[in-house]
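Consider the subject:
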Amino acid sequence: MMTPTRYVFIVITLIICLHYILTFTHEDYGRATSLNNIKDKWSLGGSRPSNYVPPKGEFLDEDVRPAPARKANATFVILARNGDLTGVIESIQRLEDRFNRHFHYPYVFLNEEPFTQEFKQRTRNMISGTAEYGLIPKHEWEQPPTVDENKAREAREEMIRENVIYGGLYRNMCRFNSGYFYRQELMMKYKYYWRVEPGVKYFCNLDYDPFLLMQDENKVYGFTLSLYEYQRTIPTLWDATKEFIRQNPQYLPRDNAMSFISDDGGKTYNLCHFWSNFEIGDLDFWRGEAYSKYFEHLDAQGGFYYERWGDAPVHSIGAALFARKDQIHYFDDIGYRHEPFQKCPQGDLHTRGKCSCDPNDDFSHVPYSCTYRYERMF
C-alpha cells in the first residue's frame, strides 16, 4: 500500500520530469526555428504548418516567406571583382531586405578573374535564392586585337589631361555590358535580369514582383534614373548610330522612343540616357537581331576604346530605337541610390514602400534629369 509521503514524492518527480521534457522540446524547437535555419528550410521550398504560431519576438511572417507560386524566369546579375566584396554584400543585404527575401530569385555573379572561396561563401550566406559564379572569357572582356592600341592610349591620356570623368577607366567593362553580359553561359537560361552594382542602396519595400510586371505587360527595359551623358566621351556615337539607322531602317518600330533621345527627329542626339547601373530588362531583347547587329556595328567603329562609349547611352539608344515606347517602364516606386544620384519615390509611393530616403532628395525632376522627356512621350 502506497503511503502519502511516497505518493507526494512520485507526483513531484513526475512534475519535474514533465518540466524538463517541455523545456527540452521548447529549446529544441527554438533552435530548429531560428531565423538562419528557417531561411535554409523555406528557401528550399518548404512551408509552415497551417497552425504554426511563431514564438514571441520572431518575425517570420515579415522576414521569411515561401517562394511565390508564380515567378518569372529571371535573375539578378552582378559584375564584380573579388575586391568589391564589401560593396557587393551591402547591395545584396539591402536588396534582400527590401525585396528578395520574399521572392528568392537567383543571382549570377560575373568576373574576369576566378572568384575566391571567401567571395562565394560570404555572398551565398547573404541570399535567399541560389548563386552561380561565372568567369568571363578573355576575348569578351579584353580589348580586341582590331583596336589600334596607340590610338586608344592617346585617347585615354587626352581625356585624363582634360579631366574627363572616368576618362582613363572602364572601357572593357562598358564594352562587355553593352554587348556580352547577356550572352554569358550562366545567363542563357534566363529571360529577365536585374542589374545590381556594388555599394548601391535600395530604400523602399517592394511587395510585388517587377519581373512579373515586365513579363505580363510585355516590357523590355525598366529604369529608375535618367540623365545627360558627357558629350566628350561619345563625340561620334550618334554619327555611328545614324549610319546604322540609314542602313537598317526596318529595325525601328513606328512607335519607338526616338523623342526621348532626340529633339529633332534623329538629326542630333540630346545626350539623354537611362542610368544603366540599375536596369531590369528582357535578355531576349538584347539577344535579338536588331540590337545584336547594332552592337556589332558600334564595336567595329572602335569607339569603346578610341572614345569612351558607355553602356548606358548604348543601351538607352538601343532601347529607344528598337523597342516601342510603351515597352520601356519607369520604376518610380523603386527607391535607389548609386552615388551621387538617387531616386526617392514621392507621395503615396513613399508611404506604401516605407521608404527610408528623404523625398526632398530626388534626382528625377532636377534640371540635369531626363525623366521629364520620358514622361512627356505619353
